[in-house]
């Protein structure tokens, strides 16, 4: 799309080819013993940071450490590419305490998104693992 191309060209002018060339998408899946998908995490690594877009574990498998392991694995992928930070978003009804337990800290919030809830912006310094 022309809009994306225009933004890419602008970013190249300011960040340089090396910074843009390191962009990666990453996906880590968890399956049960029969090959059924029971969880996964995906994100994008760009501008020296991993952005976790989605982390999900099937309801029947929650509380068994699968989410923690998925997050550990995607964080390791970022470290393997030389990235030192991770950021993500969650809401007050999702996994705020889960991410805090794993070393993420809130750096911003948007109250009322969605209505009656808060959207949290979180980050973690991966070099501190």
Produce a short descriptive summary:
This protein has helices at 2-15, 17-21, 66-80, 96-101, and strands spanning 24-31, 37-46, 49-57, 85-91, 105-111, 118-125. With 129 residues, the chain is an alpha+beta fold.
Tally of separate helices: 4
CATH first level: which class?
Alpha Beta
Main beta sheet: strand number and arrangement? 6 strands, mixed
User: Can you say what the CATH homologous superfamily is?
Assistant: Gcn5-related N-acetyltransferase (GNAT)
Q: Helix proportion of residues, in percent?
A: 25-40%
Low-confidence stretches: none
Report how far apart the termini are: 38 Å
* Count of the separate structural domains: 1
Structural class by SSE content = alpha+beta
Order of helices and strands: HHEEEHEHEE
Keywords:
alpha+beta, 129 residues, 6 strands, single chain, Aminopeptidase, six-stranded mixed sheet, 4 helices
Secondary structure elements and pairings:
Layout lengths: L1 H14 L1 H5 L2 E8 L5 E10 L2 E9 L8 H15 L4 E7 L4 H6 L3 E7 L6 E8 L4
Parallel strand pairs: 3-4
Antiparallel strand pairs: 1-2, 2-3, 4-6, 5-6
Explain what this protein looks like in three dimensions.
It contains 4 helices and 6 strands. Strands 1-2-3-4-6-5 form a 6-stranded mixed sheet. The N and C termini lie far apart (38 Å). The chain is of the alpha+beta class and 129 residues long. Helix content is 31%, strand content 38%.
